[in-house]
Write a sequence for this structure.
């Protein structure tokens, strides 16, 4: 269990994040934690809750709020993913998501820079393990694979080695000294992101790393309902799933969004780094072991 | 069978017919990517170590390991003989397999012997053993070197550091996990 000092720091951390987004003109929202349908994603296992599922992310409903006319929204919520348990994974964790209309992934990178600068000034008693002065490192996925794996990202994907090379060879080098934005992912690894104009097999998706730890995943939203439907179908096919229900209302709403960008940041991981720890169990209010009866 | 999600530090699995214990474990999963189970393992027979990353769909056999209560009898060269206290069956383990444990074996000592496929591969010693000091240099009075321990040899031939007051013939307690002196034992 987190001690008194830790609880106060955790509270100050959430307050500072809320204050930052309110100052930037974002509206704080909350969306259903129990969802009748989850976005088809091959590598995310949802946790059932009666007839529904616990959210793996509020993404779908956040985008429906964009379609309803919200221009800048954020949410801090608990998310749930089955089977993810390790030093940097919890089956229940705290996510920060924010979305902007008429923005792209580059705008979100700037948001990250501003948010961290604000947190550094607001969070007394915490230290970022890296320098935050601009510019931060920006590295494309392709360049990262060439540099750290001597193989193209495309080839790694074809050989089903992408994830392992990313984790073992690339990630430990990222966010060292300064944060790193790893960006322009292969299209098939970004089923909700917009293809990069003029580069048909890359998507406008990025991940933010600090000290080798992946903190956030953001992208320019795919807003074409037809294309989104076919991406979901591809994802269902990869999963070999029988139930291929589509989030029809979401797909319909998507048609009314012209351009948008959204990002999800793991707040437990960020808080862990600010406290100089290396295991999430040390910084959550109750660790998994604390819960065991 | 174990699946990849069962993997954790300390778990024993069988690979290519050999028993392995996982000595280091890390779960990894890049954003939107697949779960990776990164293991460092030690072969429980040869001691060889290796690292391997597994995916969600992999399965592992449980090694046929069994612990039996046995008594240490004697050694003949490099062969250390043990007897099952229920069936009186005897078996031996080589000095190489026993490793550091040979330092703490006493005749008639009760312990657990680990078998893999009916073959003994390791022993679990009691945490504390009492052994007689066979060689101890007298403490040099007026020693100003500042050392507060001295080396002694015990009945098994094992050499360790003890406080200066320990003399030849004393019985001392040793922690078998660390090989360190604990206390002098009065009988």
């Amino acid at each position: 269990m987190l001690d008194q000092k830790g609880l106060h720091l955790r509270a100050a951390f959430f307050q500072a994040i809320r204050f930052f987004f309110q100052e930037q003109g974002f509206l704080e929202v909350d969306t259903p934690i129990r969802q009748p349908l989850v976005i088809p994603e091959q590598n995310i296992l949802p946790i059932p809750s009666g007839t529904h599922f616990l959210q793996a992310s509020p993404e779908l409903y956040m985008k429906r709020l964009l379609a309803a006319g919200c221009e800048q929204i954020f949410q801090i919520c608990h998310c749930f993913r089955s089977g993810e348990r390790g030093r940097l994974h919890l089956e229940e964790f705290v996510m920060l998501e924010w979305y902007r209309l008429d923005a792209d992934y580059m705008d979100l990178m700037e948001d990250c820079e501003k948010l961290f600068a604000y947190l550094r000034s607001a969070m007394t008693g915490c230290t970022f393990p890296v320098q935050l002065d601009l510019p931060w490192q920006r590295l494309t996925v392709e360049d990262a694979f060439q540099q750290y794996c001597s193989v193209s990202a495309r080839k790694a994907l074809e050989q089903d080695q992408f994830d392992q090379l990313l984790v073992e060879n690339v990630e430990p080098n990222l966010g060292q000294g300064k944060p790193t934005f790893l960006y322009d992912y292969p299209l098939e690894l970004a089923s909700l992101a917009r293809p990069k104009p003029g580069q048909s097999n890359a998507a406008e998706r990025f991940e933010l790393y600090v000290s080798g730890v992946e903190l956030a995943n953001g992208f320019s939203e795919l807003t074409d309902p037809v294309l989104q439907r076919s991406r979901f179908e591809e994802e269902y096919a990869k999963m070999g799933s029988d139930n291929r229900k589509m989030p029809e209302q979401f797909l319909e709403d998507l048609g009314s969004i012209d351009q948008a960008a959204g990002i999800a940041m793991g707040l437990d991981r960020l808080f862990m780094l600010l406290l100089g720890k290396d295991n999430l169990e040390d910084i959550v209010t109750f660790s998994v072991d604390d819960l065991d009866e | 069978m174990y699946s990849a999600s069962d993997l954790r530090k300390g778990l024993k699995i069988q690979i290519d017919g050999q028993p392995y214990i996982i000595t280091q474990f890390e779960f990894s999963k890049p954003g939107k990517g697949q779960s990776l189970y990164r293991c460092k393992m030690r072969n429980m027979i040869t001691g060889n170590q290796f690292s391997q990353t597994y995916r969600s769909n992999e399965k592992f056999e449980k090694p046929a390991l069994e612990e039996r209560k046995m008594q240490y009898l004697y050694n003949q060269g490099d062969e250390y003989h043990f007897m099952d206290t229920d069936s009186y069956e005897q078996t031996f383990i080589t000095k190489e397999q026993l490793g550091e444990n040979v330092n703490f074996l006493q005749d008639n000592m009760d312990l657990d012997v680990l078998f893999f496929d009916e073959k003994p591969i390791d022993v679990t010693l009691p945490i504390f053993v009492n052994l007689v000091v066979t060689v101890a240099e007298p403490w040099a009075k007026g020693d100003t070197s500042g050392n507060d321990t001295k080396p002694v040899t015990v009945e098994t031939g094992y050499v360790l550091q003890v406080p200066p007051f320990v003399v030849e013939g004393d019985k001392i307690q040793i922690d078998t996990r660390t090989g360190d002196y604990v206390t002098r034992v009065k009988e």
About this structure: Chain A has one domain: 4-291.
